[in-house]
Design brief:
single chain, 572 residues, mainly alpha, Transcription Regulator spoIIAA, 2 domains, six-stranded mixed β-sheet, two-stranded antiparallel sheet, elongated, SLC26A/SulP_fam, membrane, transmembrane, SLC26A/SulP_dom, SulP family inorganic anion transporter
């Protein structure tokens, strides 16, 4: 450990006995990861080898800097879709006639994501992992999955699709239906069916691995390349050289915004994965420390000609199910992929593109969490609506703009939850201690000569007017004999300058009615705001109390006496 930066924490306490568990786990992770490593780059229009590079370099970097012993990082379908949108924005903003190096752009964005991770760690912004709520992420990923599915039309059919969006590619496909390459379509659908058969039969061999093996064997036997079925083609047989992408040739604003969008989605979804597996293993997940591991795991591929990655749920699940105990499994996986790149180059070069499309389509469908959407619908209709808004944003405006819609939906959801804070008049119940909401407890009675009004939430610029109008309506309904109004501030976390102005207006109205305004249990921070705003001076420092009981006993005497409550008929 160097300062607050974790170093080799995932390998701490190393024992040679771990090899018996981590080597088989690492081999399994590599076997499952290879098909997706080759397939996922196609989402962003990148060559297949970039996915292998990412699957090698990211786990090595995470093993050094990541805090978790069991998490496995690597290419992720949702992250790749946001990457594709960010790359599209950068390419569109580049000067006409400029040569476009897609790999360099992806590398720059990977480094940008890593920088955002490190900056967020320094600012202790691990809380950003919870910024996109689970319902909004579920909805957003459902929209992303549809984008991925539409993107596979050309790979399944062999038809070049030039339209973007959701509907336009379908319309273009209908117009070009006469150009469909039927052998490609039949192969792709057969591999797609095979994936679902393997899933349905719960075979021990992962479906993507079986698809790669079967399609490569068939490609070798029937010469798919000669039959007009597109194949991957030759892959580099070694690792790339260290190189820094030419940032100065890319529009800075689009690069920064693209990196920020990828960071938010990658980190938000990644922490959901980390916490999900952490709950099973008992491993605590520190979002701020994970920022270091994820940052390093993005910068490393970016420096070697690859793209941004995230925490992989499928690879982590394989690691756990096969008994992995440390980050040594990730290192074994990286070494296995290096060997595959060197020794299986010829075999991988004849892997048919329709088979990759089948893998991508299956991965996309897995992003649609129907069970979770049903659960959200059952728990909260409002949250379900926000999930649909996030889904609609990704579908209607494109993935990159969909991130903005998801963020806007998050803000709208937060505002809705805090714009109308709960409030109510409080009273006493004979024979019971404490105060009770008069609306919720019919047996509760208000205090004679006084009113206790509680606000459950901060009073800020966007809800201050609502709170002011609520208090004014309560004041107008008070009995004529009311001499005191006590604001129970125990649930008010913060009052800003606009909130202070609202309370000042309430104090003025109470003064005109000869009702004393008192505040109980006010936080020190809010008290300082009210003091600087002159509200404390207006109501009098003697009318600030540590609690409701203290306030009422000081103002009207013993509040536990029976004659201190008002009969039910007089409750406002």
């Amino acid at each position: 450990m160097i300062g607050s930066i974790p170093m080799l924490r995932g390998l701490s306490g190393f024992s040679w006995d771990w090899l018996r568990s981590d080597i088989p786990a690492g081999l399994s992770v590599a076997a499952v990861g290879l098909p997706s490593a080759i397939a996922y780059p196609a989402i962003a229009g990148l060559p297949p080898e970039t996915g292998i590079y990412a699957s090698i370099l990211a786990p090595i970097a995470y093993a050094i800097f990541g805090p978790s012993r069991l998490l496995v990082v690597g290419p992720d379908a949702a992250t790749m879709t946001v990457l594709a949108a960010a790359m599209g924005a950068i390419i569109a903003a580049s000067p006409a006639g400029t040569a476009v190096d897609r790999v360099a752009i992806a590398s720059a964005l990977a480094i940008g994501v890593g920088v955002f991770c490190i900056a967020a760690k320094l600012l202790k912004l691990g809380v950003l992992a919870s910024f996109l709520s689970r319902p909004i992420l579920v909805g957003f990923f459902a929209g992303v999955s549809l984008s991925i599915l539409v993107g596979q039309i050309g790979r399944f059919t062999g038809v070049k699709i030039e339209s973007d969006g959701l509907i336009a590619p379908l319309v273009e496909m209908l117009a070009k239906s006469g150009l469909v390459h039927w052998p490609s379509l039949i192969l792709g659908l057969a591999m797609f069916a095979l994936l679902w058969i393997v899933r349905g039969l719960h075979l021990k061999v992962p479906g993507p691995v079986l698809v790669v093996v079967v399609s490569v064997v068939l490609s070798a036997i029937f010469d798919f390349r000669g039959q007009g079925i597109a194949v991957i083609g030759d892959l580099p047989s070694g690792l790339p050289a260290l190189s820094l992408p030419a940032f100065h040739q890319m529009p800075l604003d689009k690069t920064v915004l693209g990196s920020a969008a990828i960071f938010l989605v990658s980190f938000g979804a990644g922490i959901v994965t980390a916490r999900s597996f952490g709950s099973r293993t008992g491993e605590e997940v520190d979002a701020n420390q994970e920022l270091i591991g994820l940052g390093a795991a993005n910068i490393a591929p970016g420096l070697f000609g690859s793209f941004p990655i995230s925490m992989s749920d499928s690879r982590t699940a394989i690691n756990l199910s096969t008994g992995g105990v440390s980050q040594l499994a990730g290192l074994v996986s990286a070494a296995t992929l290096i060997a595959a790149l060197v020794f299986l180059n010829d075999a991988l070069s004849i892997l048919p593109i329709p088979a990759l499309a089948a893998i991508l389509a299956t991965a996309a469908i897995s992003l649609i969490d129907i069970d979770e959407l049903r659960k959200i619908w059952r728990i909260s209709r409002i949250e379900f609506i926000f999930a649909l808004i996030a889904m609609w944003g990704a579908i209607s405006f494109g993935v990159l703009n969909g991130v903005i819609v998801a963020i806007a939906a998050t803000f709208a959801y937060l505002l809705r939850q805090t714009m109308f804070p709960r409030d109510g008049l409080l009273g006493r119940i004979e024979g019971r201690h404490g105060f009770f909401d008069l609306q919720r407890f019919p047996e509760a009675r208000p205090i004679e000569g006084a009113a206790v009004f509680a606000v459950q939430g901060s009073i800020l610029f966007y809800n201050a007017d609502y709170v002011r109008l609520r208090m004014i309506s309560v004041i107008k309904a008070l009995p004529a004999e009311t001499k005191y109004l006590v604001l129970d501030a125990s649930a008010i976390t913060y009052i800003d300058s606009t909130g202070a102005t609202a309370l000042e207006a309430v104090a003025d109205m109470l003064a005109k009615r000869n009702i004393t305004f008192a505040i109980a249990d006010l936080s020190e921070e809010s008290r300082a705001i009210l003091d600087r705003a002159g509200v404390i001076n207006a109501i009098g420092a003697d009318n600030l109390f540590n609690g409701r009981e203290e306030a009422l006993r000081t103002l009207i005497g013993d509040i536990d006496q029976p004659d201190r409550t008002v009969p039910a008929a007089n409750v406002p």
